[in-house]
Amino acid sequence: MRGSAMGRWALGAPLLILALAAGPLHGQVSQQRIENAARLLEDLVETYGVSGDEGEVRKEILDALPGWADPEVDSAGNVWVRVGQGEPVSVFVAHMDETGFQITEIGDDGLLTVRSRGGFLRSLWEGTPAIVHQEDEPINGVFVPRRDISEPSRAVPPGPTYVDVGARSRAEAEAMGMEVGQTVTNPKEFVRLAGTRATGRSFDDRVSSAAQILALQDLDPAAARHEFVFLWVVEEEIGLVGSAYAARTLGFDADRVYPVDTFVSADTPIDPQNFAVAPSLLALSHRGHRSQGSGGALRLDSRHRRGLVEADAAVSPASALRGAAVRRKHSLEVLLDRGPLFRSHAVVRAVSQ
Known about the structure:
By secondary structure, this protein is α+β, with helices and mostly antiparallel strands. The protein is built from 8 helices and 17 strands.
């Protein structure tokens, strides 16, 4: 269900739509391609899909696929598109869900108790507009702020998170259609900025979902020299649920897996400099590094976890740094960051086309 109103909380980093429009960033990209990419991204961003409730996002993706595609939806809710035949089998994965909440209880006073669906700073939701998602029309509300305003604003709010929809009793809330299990988010809107930039909430991971669709729209399936699998998975934000299901389905058939996702960036001097400063592609231009529009980042993570959306655990940051010949051949720059939030990770950045 698309958002019709914009709350005052529209969290999201600026995005270069040009990057989604395919082709080298420094080459000529037609305005039509840019507008096509923007329209697709707008459709996906303004569609709500909290983890476990991705149905509307899945419909948008299926509707946007090219006519030749033969998509399958597995029992977990993941979308599969296979192209070509033969080895090696390359898999591209984006996730459909977004962070949000789910109703766990309706109080006698009409307040809704909600639980988080995905990791995020709960403090950022306090006092902001809320939408309770229903099959028909959504119900507006507000995330109840903490009672003690003397606490630091970024401290974890004590106790549960509540949503107030204006009901004064459980019976009144139920008469409005409130039910345990319904999902709750903020209003959101895709907003165009200057040039080819845009902002909005849930760019994670609607940007990658759009990128995979655009790739398929440009792809000639007859030209595929081996098999490619494009996956849009569910419930990434709550623990790679859809990815784990897909991994079991693929077994050992996949030779390469490319999780396509957004990359956190410390974009201003006041941001924590121990989180995803590698230095980032979208930030730190004031330090002489590449600014927004320099291309994507490939993160090699040394953490050993199962699931398709994790980077290849067999490729460690150390081995990536030792691959000087590979870096020279492909004009890659490898950046290593060891921060307290990660054991260690490397970022491989394309420095030339």
